[in-house]
Design brief:
By secondary structure, the chain is of the alpha/beta class. The protein folds into two domains: 298 residues, Rossmann fold (3-Layer(aba) Sandwich); 177 residues, Glycogen Phosphorylase B (Rossmann fold, 3-Layer(aba) Sandwich). The chain is built from 20 helices and 21 strands. The strands form four sheets. Strands 1, 2, 3, 4, 5, 6, 9, 10, 14 and 15 form a ten-stranded mixed β-sheet that branches. The chain has a six-stranded parallel β-sheet with strand order 18-17-16-19-20-21, with helices on both faces. The longest helix is centred in the last third of the chain and has 29 residues.
């Protein structure tokens, strides 16, 4: 078996290597607080915000969804409408902007009411929009076409997930030969490889790409075209959101069918852990908590627990362990093994579940809550204040994920003194130290999860030992600063590769 590059196995060492000095342009389908369905919005915001705070010229582009128009009426157009040609069709785009302080990223929005003035970001309860490939191809092409207006100098595109993966494809195919485009470096970050953007071969002309790209070494994938694969092939560098997940993506069991493509990237593929925003996630100053607390004074956490118990209709009892789970109600999050374990109604503990998602999990959790309303509470309308309050009041956080590229909730939970119970996958393996800052199990089986829960309950019985573990978890540093420095060095590597390419081709074109 081939040896994996060291850059995949370990994070890039802090303090080593050169950093990129040009403009960084993020393309994403979500960005907090404008549009969010999950962790993607917060991850992109975290990277961009800390880059800008460190002095880097940072721009962000996202579609102008209806939810943004309604929630942020102060955004305004910053250019006249302009045509965008994609294959045989020509559409009209316009760029909007919201003014932000100098130390924050400049955020731009791409307007096309036909594509983005809709109820949902990606679809409705009935399923995904059938023209998502058209919507996001337009988004990518419009940004690239307008980019020289705001970044005429050294520029690097940082595309996020399949929705933006066509940006590096366009740069190196239909836009190749343009002096500005040829000099733009590109990085693609894979936040969730479970979503790839599959389309039929016949749709390639619709997104302005030649049929020659329908090849196993470009975009063909089991008889269909794969937009994420195209981005992987054409980007100058590729990252994912934790070192462990970078290893997993190179394997047959963890690569979502793209393991060969990830392996072909060799040292052009690295894992960089996400972080959390300590300005937002700080229990000593959290505006949504009734009682602040810190690692030096945990009395406020006990009060937060009592407040949460009363708020959720549970008996106020400081001695009974309280388990919380805040997650999208989906198979990925481990609800199958949690429900199969059958421990929720059996164990002497309280349980609070917060999240939106699939009805089958919602119905199962609601049935448990109906059977034992004095020990189980559910809330299927997710809000940020509720998540803060749950982590502040809970003793333990459940996160038994089937897969988890990075995960943010386990970092937040440690910051708030709720010890995570996690499966050893992706970023969970990189951020939770077993029996020190939480509890880690391996097998995706109900018995393995229940075993970890019992270890947690045993620790809780010894309150002095439990508080020592809580304090240790609260001191772990999961801030964005280290990750942002690692991204800057990846950008430098991408820019160097792009610069070498340009010089070679200029030399070939000289008489």
């Amino acid at each position: 078996m081939a040896t994996e590059p060291a850059s995949v196995l370990e994070p890039i060492p802090a303090g080593n290597g050169r950093e990129y000095e040009g403009t960084v342009v993020h393309l994403a389908s979500e960005y907090w607080p404008y549009a969010r369905t999950g962790g993607l919005a917060e991850a992109v915001r975290g990277i961009a915000r800390y880059q800008a705070a460190a002095g880097a010229e940072t721009l962000v582009f996202l579609p102008l969804y209806r939810i943004i128009r309604e929630g942020f009426p102060e955004i305004e157009p910053c250019c006249e409408p302009f045509p965008v040609s994609i294959g045989a069709r020509t559409e009209t785009a316009r760029i909007y902007r919201r003014h932000t302080p100098p130390d924050q990223p400049t955020v731009y929005f791409v307007e096309h009411d036909g594509y983005f003035d809709r109820d949902g970001l990606y679809g409705t309860d009935s399923g995904s929009y059938p023209d998502n490939h058209l919507r996001f191809s337009f988004f990518c092409k419009a940004v690239l076409q307008w980019l020289p207006q705001v970044s005429p100098g050294p520029t690097l595109i940082h595309a996020h997930d399949w929705h933006a993966a066509l940006a590096p494809v366009y740069l190196r195919t239909v836009m190749a030969g343009d002096r500005h485009c040829d000099g733009v470096g590109s990085v693609l970050t894979v936040h969730n490889a479970g979503y790839q953007g599959h389309i039929g071969r016949e749709a390639l002309p619709e997104i302005g790409l030649p049929d020659s790209l329908f090849s196993w070494n470009y975009m063909e994938w089991y008889g269909r075209a794969n937009l994420l694969k195209g981005g992987l092939v054409f980007a100058d560098m590729v990252t994912t959101v934790s070192p462990t997940h970078a290893r997993e993506l190179r394997t047959r069991t963890g690569g979502f069918g793209l393991q060969e493509t990830f392996n072909d990237l060799q040292d052009h593929f690295v894992g960089i852990l996400n972080g959390i925003d300590y300005d937002v996630w700080d229990p000593s100053s959290d505006r949504w908590l009734e009682f602040p607390f810190s690692v030096d004074d945990l009395s406020g956490k006990a009060k937060c627990k009592a407040w949460l118990q009363e708020k959720r209709g549970l008996p106020v009892d400081p001695e009974i362990p309280l388990f919380g789970m805040t997650a999208r109600l989906a198979e990925q999050k481990g609800f199958d093994i949690l429900l199969q374990a059958g421990m929720i109604p059996r164990l002497d503990a309280q349980w609070i579940f917060l999240g939106e998602g699939e009805r089958r999990y919602r119905d199962a959790l609601q049935a448990l809550a109906d059977q034992a309303p004095d020990r189980i509470a559910v809330h299927f309308e997710f809000t940020e204040p509720r998540e803060h309050q749950l982590l502040a009041g809970a003793d333990f956080l459940l996160m038994p994920s089937l897969y988890e590229p990075c995960g943010l909730t386990q970092m937040r939970a440690q910051r708030y003194g709720a010890l995570p119970i996690v499966r050893r996958v992706g970023g969970l393996a990189d951020t939770v130290e077993d029996r020190i800052t939480g509890f880690v199990f391996d097998e995706y089986q109900p018995w393995a999860l229940e075993e970890a829960v019992h270890y947690a309950l045993d620790l809780y019985k010894d309150r002095t030992s439990w508080e020592n573990h809580v304090r240790e978890a609260m001191t772990r540093d999961w801030g964005w600063e280290r990750s942002v420095h690692q991204y800057q060095r990846v950008y430098h590597q991408a820019a160097e590769a792009r610069g070498a390419f340009v010089e070679i081709h200029r030399a070939r074109s000289r008489p």
